[in-house]
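With this grant's support, we have paired protein sequences with backbone structure tokens. One protein thus recorded is set out beneath this paragraph:

_____
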Amino acid sequence: MYATAIISVEQKDNALLIPADALVVEKVRKSVFTVVDNKAKKVPLKVGFSDENSVEILDGLPPGKPVITAGKQNLNDGQPVSVKAPAKK
């Protein structure tokens, strides 16, 4: 048996995306850690579409703001951090 299906895909040209690895999920809250004055700052988010690689940010994070991906599981708000440039490939 065969079927023909039409699948509609929404495209957002100016969507703000972050790596899925940066997202912190706690029960019903979602957030990320950013860096302010060499300290981790937890920022609550409103998110939209997500997949295994990216998460769409609807509110809470300005475009271009770096987010912490490595070691976020052990971070606390206000904890001192040091920022390193990503490894070159």
Q: What stands out?
A: The radius of gyration is 16 Å. The chain has a mean pLDDT of 87. Strands lie at 16-19, 24-26, 29-36, 39-44, 46-50, 54-59. The chain has no helices and six strands.
